[in-house]
Structure formats: C-alpha cells, structure tokens
Amino acid sequence: MKNKITYKHHTLKHSLMLFTLLLFTLACQKKSEPGLQSLDAEIKISLTSMEFEDPTITSETEQQSNSTLNAFNNRNRRMAFSKGRTVDVSLTVEEPSKSNNNISKGLKAGAVRKTLAPGILYGLLVYDNNGNYVTEKQYNYGTESTVAAIPLDGGSTYTFIAYSINNTSNLPSIINKQQLSTASIENIGTELMYFKTSKKVVTGINLLNVILKHQFSVVTTTLTLDPNLTGYITKLDQASLNPTYSTASLKLSDNSLKYNNLKTTGTTITFPQITGQGVRTITSSPTFFISPQNNIGTLDFGTITIDDEIKTKFKIPDIKFTPGLRYSLNIKFQTCTQDVSGADGMNWYFEKVTQGTETGIIKDGVFYKRGSTIEMPITAPGADYGFVFDISQIDNAFNMELNGVKLAKEELQFERGASTAQNVRFKDQSYYQGVNTEGGTIPAIFNMIGTQQIPLIKLVISKTGEVKLYGAKKSNGPLYELELFGTNSFNKFKWNTSAQGTNNVKITQIVDERTILIGYGSGKKKIACQ
Q1: Which of 86, 124, 174, 277 has its CA at 20 to 30 Å from residue 405's CA atom?
Q2: Are residues 274 and 352 in the same domain?
C-alpha cells in the first residue's frame, strides 16, 4: 500500500510539473505570436486637428536661422510702386489659436490649429521599439470610432506615425516601410501633414491623440488700396512666388525634408476674378508652396492696374518663409499727395441753446434755430487728385456742395433717432447704434472720437468725382467702407482737375440741438513720392 501511495504522489507531482511547463510554453507562444489578434492592448485614434507649427522660437539655433524672418515680421516695409505711389508690405505669421477648448491638453498651446474637413483620409503606421514595422491602418476624419482598434502588446513602447495630403480620396505610398530608419514619403507636390510620437501602451484601451502638422508653408496675400487712394484694382494677373520647388520627400524617422526640382516659374498665387468696376481690396486663396528654411523669395506680378495706372513686372523682393508656418502677406497701395487748400479751422462745437420757444445754437454771435443750416466754404485750386475730408468728431450729420452740386441728395445722417432718418451704414451691414456684424454693437457716432491722423469719418472724392465714405466702429479704430441707404444717394458732379481751374467746396450741417463737426478738408494734388 505504501508503494502504491508513493507512486500516485510522484505521478501527481509529475503531472503538475508538465502542466506548469505547458502554461509557460503557451505564454511564450503568445508573446511571440505574429498575429495581432492575441495581444492584450488596444489603440484607438482621436485626431483632434491639423495645425501649423508653433511660431514661438524655442532654441538658439532657431533664433539664429530665423533672424531675417523676425526682422521682416516686426516691421512694415515701404517701397516704390510708381512715381506717385508707394507700397507698404507686411508679412506676419498667423496668430496662434487662443480659444480651442476641444484641443487636448497635450497639444502645443501656441500652435495655429484648424479643424480638418470631414472625410479627410490619413494613415497610421506603427513601429516597435527597435524600429521594425508592426502594422498600419487608414482612417477618414470623423469616422475613427467605426474602425476596429489596433491590438498591440501591453507594456511595450511603439512609435506611431500619421500622415495625410489633406484630401478624401488617396494617400501617398510609404517607401521602404519595413524599417523606420528607411521609411519615407517621396515626391509630394501637394499639402503634406505629418505626426510622430512614441508611447508605452498598457493592457486595455489606449487613446492616441493625433495632431497632423503641415510640413510646407502657406501664405494668404491681400492687396488693399489706402482710403486716400482713389479708384479701383481693375486687373491683376500672373502673380507668383519665386523660387519654389515642385516636390519634397519626407523621412519618417526624423521629419527631415529633401527638396526636389526647383521651379523657376514659381508657385502661382490665385486671386478671385475681378469683374465690373473693380475692387478696392482682394485676397488670394491660401497658397501652399514648397520652400526650404533659408530660401529668400520674390513675389512677382505680371500686371497690376490700379486707378487707371498700369504696372507690369512689379516685384516685392526679399521675402523669407519658414516651412510649417502660416503667413499673411498684406500689400497696401498708397498715393503721394500734397494739400492745395484746406479748412484748418473747422472746429464747430455748439451746445444747444434756447431763445423764446426755439432751440438751436449760436454761431459767431448769430442764433441758428433747429433745422437751419450752417456752412463753411473751401476753394480747391488745381486739385488734380480730388478732395479728402477727415472728421474727428461729429454730432450727428453733414453734407457738402461741390461746384454747386450737393454731395448727396439728403444730409448724411449717422445717428439713429435724430430729426432725420439714419441713412448711413457700413457696407458689411453694421449700423451705428446697432449691430456690428463682426460681433457686439457699435456706439452712437456722437460718443466716439478720432484724430486728424486717425479720423472717425473719412470722405474721399476722386479726380473723376467719385465718392468714397469710410467710418470707424470705435474711437481711434480702423476705417471700414460706408454706404448710403434708404432714400439717400450720392449725386454726380464734375470735378475740375486742371491747374488753372477752381473747385468750390462748401461743407454744410443742419442744426439739430447740439451741433458738432470737427475736421479737416483739403484738395489733393498728386506728387512724386520722396
């Protein structure tokens, strides 16, 4: 009996040892199993945005390489356009996003973020800690939750690389993808976005936050006529940025770019088609272009026609861009003029007074009752570039006569609820004492002020008698174009541009209790720029 018991004991012990060895073997097989279905960690994707690089300089090397760029961005350049015109050029990096509460805390706070369009296709490559290819998947932005998670080995570290050319139909091929050290995307001539991170995954669900970063630069170019410059931009063609490259190749391991095929004709900048009488401001489509860090370029225009002046082969040189940044290039055209006459003492500021049953004002010792008109005459001899009237304070309306013809059919009324109906508004459909289409409301005209240099209201009369009216939405603010509405409209009149001629201007204002009009009006003569 003793031997039998001993035999059973050894048999049981042997069986337990075999079972333990089997479990160990199975565990090892699980670890080395090439199929992903047996692994115990899962990766799910959350693509939050695409972004342009953070313009904040963080290293001494970057500071040195960007010194030219920073000098350009921190000032405006003024250059000659023609004998009587100049151009102010301003290149600025787009401001970082200030309010995107949906962006993960792990993202750069200073980066310029944009939401991807629904359906944008992007790929994800996974490499192990030794740089060996593991797997890959494709996603369409907005439908990531419908794609099965990627199974991986919990406790291991992987490198994740995402890439896209920002369209919904295709992805570039990955060359030599079996090793991270050799993997690349070759000869990309469109937009290219890229993301890389290393992450140690844990058993269970792991969320990977992806931000696709642009690898090439983008610039939006805006041409604007200064309010003092009359006329319109009527022709603009063959605009390009030179030199640029046809394509670039991206090495996935270190995000380095190799530039291919220099384009001597540059990258075309596309503007909207100009129709009708023309435009006073025009903005291009965002232009992606391929250019290395130290490349200094030139903006070329084939033909620009402004205010009936034609300029061919106009160039703006010495523009430097940094790959991965988004820029605004603002070009403002100005005319050089001098005053040929003026109303230097236009300081009408009359408080409301009462005489008997009538209210009004007293001007030069004379009582003007409410509804009567006060005026100031100006003579503008030889004003070959028209007339400009800058108003720094007004309460609450005015009109003019030019060579015996009224500027407008009715007085220009800026105030809501005055003795006459409001008939001046902003071209963007904003109103004084009303809604501002940019957000909020605009104060009453009589509660705002400007200066002669930064006027509250600017009236520009061209050499052909055309009228342009501008106004600020806040004190000392930028000017926006205004328009007349309701039953009011500008009249047509003849403006004398010859040196021997004379233009008689008379500024008028209807008394409406307190009456204020502080400004400066002058005929303008075009001169050569200094």
Answers
A1: 277
A2: no
